[in-house]
């Protein structure tokens, strides 16, 4: 899955930046934690969209879970670039939430996957 590739890229970045210095290591560790949580969240959201016709409440629950994880991640990072990527992902979640609240049982989750991809870029730069 795309989200797992992002997590793998982050782990690779961690391995490559480990010898650079504490700042790079701290950023890499933040990125690994964030990418893992985001990959899990995007997977949950994808599953909820796929099964929305069976249980539409799963979409809302998945979005609530992502919001909670993003809030926790925002509180645990002091890296400005990573914080911005988390903010962008939050905006993507809100876009999907707006669609769901407007009655869209199969919303476009591209804003979330795009933001997750950007997060991967931040973590590998």
Brief digest:
This protein has helices at residues 2-17, 22-50, 57-76, 80-101, 110-124.
Written overview of the protein:
The protein has 125 residues and is an all-alpha fold. It is 82% helix and 0% strand. The protein is built from five helices and no strands. The chain has helices at residues 2-17, 22-50, 57-76, 80-101, 110-124. The longest helix has 29 residues, at 22-50. The chain is elongated. Residues 7-11 and 13-21 have low confidence and may be disordered.
List the helices and strands and how they pair.
Blueprint: H1 2-17, H2 22-50, H3 57-76, H4 80-101, H5 110-124
List keywords for this structure.
single chain, about 120 residues, mainly alpha, 5 helices, about 0% strand
Query: What ranges have pLDDT less than 50 throughout 5 or more consecutive residues?
Result: 7-11, 13-21
pLDDT averaged residue by residue: 75
Q: From N to C, what is the helix and strand string? A: HHHHH
Q: What is the helical fraction, as a range of percent?
A: over 70%
Sheet/helix structural class: mainly alpha
Strand content: under 5%
**C-alpha-based Rg, rounded:** 15 Å
- The overall strand count is 0
How many alpha or pi helices? 5
Mass-distribution shape = elongated
End-to-end C-alpha gap: 22 Å
Largest sheet: none
């Amino acid at each position: 899955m795309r989200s797992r590739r992002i997590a793998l890229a982050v782990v690779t970045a961690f391995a490559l930046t480990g010898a650079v210095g504490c700042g790079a290591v701290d950023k890499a560790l933040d990125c690994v934690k964030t990418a893992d949580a985001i990959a899990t969240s995007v997977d949950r959201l994808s599953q909820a969209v796929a099964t929305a016709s069976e249980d539409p409440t799963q979409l809302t629950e998945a979005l609530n879970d992502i919001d909670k994880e993003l809030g926790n991640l925002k509180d645990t990072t002091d890296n400005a670039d990573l914080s911005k990527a988390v903010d962008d992902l939050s905006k993507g979640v809100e876009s999907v939430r707006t669609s769901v609240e407007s009655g869209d049982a199969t919303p476009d989750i591209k804003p979330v996957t795009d933001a997750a991809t950007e997060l991967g870029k931040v973590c590998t730069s």
